[in-house]
Structures are given as C-alpha cells and as structure tokens.
Amino acid sequence: MHLGLVTSSATAIPHDISAAIPSPSVSSFQLGPLTIHFYALCILVGIIIAIVLTNRRLTKRGVEDWQVLDIATLAVPMAIVFARIYHVITHYTDYFGPGRNPWNPFEPGSVWAIWEGGIAIFGSLIGGTLGAWIMCRRLGLKLTTLLDALAPGLILAQACGRFGNWFNQELFGLPTTLPWGLEIDPGNPAIPLGTPPDTLFHPTFLYEVIWNSLGALVLLYLGRHIFFQWGRLFAVYLMWYGAGRIVWESIRLDPSFVILGLRTNVWGAIGAVALGVAIMIIQWKRHPEPEESPFIPGREPEPAKD
C-alpha cells in the first residue's frame, strides 16, 4: 500500500480568457466588529434549505411540524464537528508541523478555522447521521424516514456549500482551454509552480453545483414512489453524489493523501456508492412492503383529544 501526500501536476495551456468565469476578489466583509465569511454564509444557506425542505417532506408523512429542528440541534453541530475532524485527519500536514500552532483559534491555519475552508462531506455524513439517529431514538422516529426526507435537501445544501469554494478560490481543477474555465489569482498556493498567470482551471465547484442540483430533481421525482422508502431514497443519494464526486475529485489540484493510487476522497466517494448499493439491496430484501408509518413501532404519538 502506498500512502503519501501528492499534488497534481499542471501544464500551461494557451487559451482565450475573454469568456472565463471570474473568481470573487473578496471572500469576506466586515459587519461592525465581526468578519462575515461568504464560505460560512453558503453553508448556512444550505443548512436552512435542507431543514425547510426536510420539514415539508416529513410533515407529509405525519410528523409534527418543525420537529426536524429538534433533530437538527444535535445533527448539524455533530455534522460540522465530524466534517472538520475528517478534513484535518486527511490533510494533517496542513495543520501540524514546525512553526505551526494548530490549536490557537486566533491563528490562521488553526484546526478551528473552518471559515478558511476545510470541511469534508464524508465526515459530516458520519457525524450528522449519528446525531440524527440519537435524536430519532429520543423522538420515536424511524431513521430511514428521516434520511429519505432529508436526501433532496441535503444534496441541495451541498450545492450551496460549493459556492463557498468559489469565494475562497479553492478546490479548483486542472488547467483547461474550455470557455468556462475559471480564473484564479496567480498567488494562489494551490497553483503548481511555473504555471503562467493567465491559466484557466476547471471550475469543479460549478460541476458539482450542476450535478447536485440535477440530483435533487431526480430524488424529488423518485421520492414520489413508495419503492424509495425504508432508506432507499437516501441510498440513491449516496450513489448519485458518490459517482459525481469520484469524477470531480479526480481532476482537482489541491494536495491530498493517496492510498493505492487514489486520493482519500475518491475512496470516500467509492465507499458512498458501495454503501448506497448495499442499503438498496438489503432494504429491498428486508422491506418490500411500503413504509406506512414514520414512527418506531410502539412510539406513535397519541391522537389529539378534542
């Protein structure tokens, strides 16, 4: 097994930048004494979209209106914490080493500075699912019902979050001559040495925004059919998102650890696809019947008294 940190090489390519996609010149703004980062705003908008859409889908199943907020109080913080932990573990050389103080929250490059970018969706899925499972057990809801209701909103939230990469000028792809190439400031540390300053790069953030948005439409359509219950709609989400992420991750320029020739996030995406397939097969065999109730047996709410 080969395990190491590598960077993708880039070759200068002649191009016409007249139709290129520009990158924002700022990634934050001041609001009184506070610094507001667009990266954080993109994530916040995504969380709101996911909660609102999930609530609408759960109430159609008979769940109390806005009970999803109770679930989010634990699931969202755990998703963010696990997302950061996953990113730091898989990019630990960015935070630990001579002359670095990763535990100082006021120092650039700190493990706490998520506003600089660096949260991993695969970590957030682990943490968020764990938090959601805990809250579902407390509230008497089936986790499968919640995950199926969440799937369209989750992939839309990920689309919103990718705009944060655009504002931060990060996680872009290899050089390209395509008319939708992305302009990146020449001083960006992710650009390989020797690359001409007018080189354009694949806008991987945009590719993922489009892919995820299409995925949301697919999930909303499939969610109308009773077959895609018992967690099977969430399985489709895992397969859809994972398949796209395998491609985008393979053309990104940012440094990454490589295991057996593949970036760690490519392995994560492959794992997501495999998990989705497994859930689909297992739940189809275990539950060919419709999921008539969103509640754990014996935990159904009592009918309201007149």
Automatic annotation (TrEMBL):
Membrane-spanning ranges: 35-54, 66-89, 109-134, 146-164, 205-223, 230-248, 260-282
Species lineage: Bacteria, Bacillati, Actinomycetota, Actinomycetes, Micrococcales
Subcellular location: Cell membrane
GO molecular function: phosphatidylglycerol-prolipoprotein diacylglyceryl transferase activity
An annotated GO BP: lipoprotein biosynthetic process
Annotated organism of origin: Brevibacterium linens
Protein name per the record: Phosphatidylglycerol--prolipoprotein diacylglyceryl transferase
HAMAP family on file: Lgt (MF_01147)
Membrane-protein topology: Multi-pass membrane protein
